[in-house]
Amino acid sequence: MDLRVTAAGEDITVPAGTTAVIGADSAATIKVARPGISRRHAVVKYDGSHWVVQDASSRNGTFHNGARIQFLDVNGPTTIRLGHPGEGAEVVLTPVVGSGRKTTDPHSPVVTAPASAQRTRVAPATQATAPGNVDPRLDDLIASLNDTVKSVKGLTWSVWAMIAVTAVLAVLTLFVGIVGN
User: Fold this and answer.
1) What separation in angstroms does the CA of 26 have from each of 66, 121, 179?
2) Are strands 118-122 and 10-14 parallel, antiparallel or unpaired?
3) In-domain check, residue 154
4) Three-class SS of residue 152?
């Protein structure tokens, strides 16, 4: 069972048994370049019986029906939002039984003719653990750690700024107290 992903005006078919990354990164399978979208925002995987969408430790979250999710089973047409529960980028995930496509090379994308303003393409297959290849979950982990480090760096600067403001206020309070006497 393949998965049709509709996002940013594009329809992409992800073949069963593969993993696809949704995000702002130019290397993402499904590219959604918008403020608030992490480079590797979410991942869709086929677990052998159904599709699962997983937040990839994104900074602003992945949402379904207004609730932030970490994992979500995709058993039918499912709409998620990236970055904000109401105004985030909309991504529609639809499982499809047999896309009817035929290819001799499972690693080459199949591009079909565009329908109106939308492009349709098949995501390149990435096996979970092919011999000699790096496990794609390692890439997911690295991207997640990079996003976490960026968040911590941002938090560190925020903490230092708060300490500096507190110190300035303390000095001003002492100065006012001394001048007032």
Assistant:
1) 27, 16, 59
2) parallel
3) no
4) helix
Torsions phi, psi of 73, nearest 5?
Answer: -75, 135
CATH number of the domain that 91 lies in?
2.60.200.20
According to DSSP, the β-strands at 42-46 and 19-23 are antiparallel
Q: Is residue 149 part of a domain?
A: no
Which residues neighbour 69 within 8 Å (Cβ) at sequence distance 6 or greater? 53, 55, 62, 63, 80
In angstroms and rounded to an integer, the radius of gyration of the C-alpha atoms of the chain is 22
Summarize pLDDT for 45-65 with one digit per residue, the tens. Answer: 998 889 999 999 999 999 999
Query: What is the pTM for the complete model shown?
Result: 0.57
Number of folded domains in the chain? 1
Task: Evaluate whether residue 181 is within a structural domain.
Answer: no
Residue 180 located in a structural domain: no
Q: What is the pLDDT of residues 76-97, one digit of tens each?
A: 999 999 999 999 999 999 999 8
What is the extent of the structural domain holding 119?
Answer: 2-133
